[in-house]
Amino acid sequence: MWAMMVGFFLIVVDSTVVTVANPVVKQHFSATYDAVVWVTSAYLLAFAALMLVGGRVGDRFGPKSVYLVGLALFTASSVWCGMAGSIEMLIAGRVAQGVGAALITPQTLSAITRTFPPERRGVAMSVWGATAGIGMFVGPLVGGLLVDVLGWRWIFYINVPIGLAGLGLALWLVPALPGRRYRLDMLGVVLSCTGICLLVFGLQEGQDHGRAVWIWGVVGGGLAVLVAFVVWQSVQKREPLIPLTLFRHRDFGISSAGIAMMSFAAMACGIPLMFYLQDTTGLSPLRAALVTTPMAVATGVLARPVGQLVDRVQPRPVVGFGFAILAIATFWLAAEMTPSTPVWRLMLPLTLLGAAGAMVWEPLAVSASRAVPVDLAGAGSAVYNTVRQVGAVLGSACIAPLMVSTSLRGSMLLPAAVAVLGAMTALFLVGHRTPAPRTVVPQPRNVSAAL
What we know:
By secondary structure, this protein is an all-alpha fold.
């Protein structure tokens, strides 16, 4: 379990770490603003577009094999990014990193679903959720430290020793779970990749080009292709890329919607917060990142207790309470974001944000995994992580115009409203209390023993 979290932590951190280095990268390559934005966007685009395929490839060849290939590709492309001699080479390297990330991410949840029985899955998912939550908060901190001390290239070079260690641990500790033979739905692959690419591309470019007609055309085209993809999956009875039977389980659909809202709120809250800390209060990137440390600490401290709790009770009240705390903390943070507010007064609402994350990330993952049949673990993980990624992109795209048209404080009302909607959505979770843990005969190299 911990071995696979190494790769997952790398890709979560990499989703946010580059933003801190963008100004330095722009100056180094004498690049335009649009070009530098694509250093981040190219990674997110490849990541989101290929995650569905990554999940099904994991079902076919087994999660361990695909995880190892993805982590090797991610590590090698990190060297590529660090050695890039032009902005174009850097963007190409980021695309390769996104492909590796799309292969890694679905395998982590798939391996948990296939390795741990439902009554022991809560603690395992707490590790997954804590890794996601802490990674999102640690990324800017690590990025600011490396850029200030060693230079921007080291935000990529640092991945190499960690990636190699992750490969060694995975080879040693992760069990070789078997895959199953099936014919890959190539038309589904083309439709899903094209639709997600167009949608994410339109949302990313919309931040710079506003309401241009071609932006609406790209977003509309992406939605149309995704509708065609869903129709094709509904008539593809033999081996669809994404079996729509997944959504017959209400908890899976509700959990997927919930994680999209959580990712939306986290991204939409983090962007104006960073602008406030750096532009309004005058903090450096590193010091601004240090201010967010209470979020990461709270998420890490509460991860295991929350995981143990959802092994004993229904996830619904935990998720609902977490979203409610998220809404309160975001409203509180917005009220404190004035030019005269001492930075220390932000610590308590930021701590509450981290606590809310621990009560939402893990229980939603547990609820989704309990509703997924073991033979569809890869597909379920891919869908869940894809909507999580698209939620983050939507949050980034929607918060940018609000920051311009209203204020940094005013823009924080959007993630707060989404958190309220998340609390209402949690009411529709069915949930169930898992039976008391059974006596399990230890197996050789059992991942749960390592955990």
